[in-house]
Amino acid sequence: MKTKIVIHGSMGSDENKQTFLLALELKPIENKIHAWLIPSNTADNDASSTFSTTWINNASTEMPPEAKFSEHSLSASQSILPQGFQTDQQDFVSRTQTEWIFIVLSTKLFQRYQDELNELREQVEQLSSYSKPKWEAMKVFWSKVQNQINEKNLFKDHSLILKNHTNNLFAHLKKLRSAQDAVFEKVAQENYEKLILQLTALELVAKEGNKLDETFKKLKQLQSEFKNTQLTRSLRSQFWEKIDAVFKEVKLKRNPESNPQDRLSRRIEGLIKAIAKMQRSIDKDEKELQSQTKRLNASDLSQLENQLREVRAKLIRERIESKSEKLSAMHQTLKDLNTKQERAKQQQKKELEKRPRTESLNTEPHLEQVVPTNQDKQTEAKLLSSAVSSNNTVTIVAEEEE
Predict the structure, then answer these.
(1) Cα 7 vs. chain centroid, distance in angstroms?
(2) Which position has the higher pLDDT, 295 or 150?
């Protein structure tokens, strides 16, 4: 969109009509129109054509001495032409007026965003360390700008200015965050090394097989300390794997005669109870849904009450669908556990058949170590948490022991 136009026209009555060349320039920031009336004796066709092209494309072009300057405001209710000026190019004038109104509004929007960005710049540049609230404020600001760009309410040059300044502030915040992350990682590494020293000492005691009860209690204390210690995600995962392995070793030595088949049976029993509880919860929701559905469109209910009941019924239906999916997954897990239990029983039966009778009378039969994979544990834990409340302890081994 251009902010300069040149049109031919006239002023005066039919007897005293005089032709002019009218040059108009929009000043978007001031919402003003600068107008120059150039008399016909200096505005012949060739000269006016040359002047129009030169002036529109070159801001430094000088007006003829005879040009008469005037200024007026841009308004949707008034013409952009000076009072009394007549032209045959009314369609062009009307279209230009609409475009100029858009330019002014877009410029005001750009200025508003510039002011907001300047305030953010002052706040960000004063930071001595990374600030997440300021990062979020920058994201909110740029989201607003991006929406206006997508709606094509901002001009390209204005958009680039806002984008470049916003990127500079984001870069500054990233630099502060990198410095903060470096400090955090250093502290996290020191914390990790302290935890590892304590865990290594407990691991040595566990391998010797002495003071297992005391070692288990110290592991629990170390576990609590670990929960509240600043660590990176990677270091936290590494330490979790190490302490979990020590927990398992201590538990195995404390209960060397523990039966894997019994542990599997307890898992199955717990899952059956969870399935029953989940089914009761679904039955309760379905009963509530029936009640809500019967009350819909009742004559004694207002429109607002009906709308509330419709929304309430939708929420219940979605809750039932979610619980049904979880229940289906729980049934699948139960099926897998039953399959593992049956396979273990068959393995035990085969081993008994292979052993001599005298040995089988005097020796405890060997049971297949049915150890659930990490994926099985994670899946089952998620399903059980949907139906049974838990304390969410970090170490499953420690939780079982208690």
Answers:
(1) 53
(2) 150
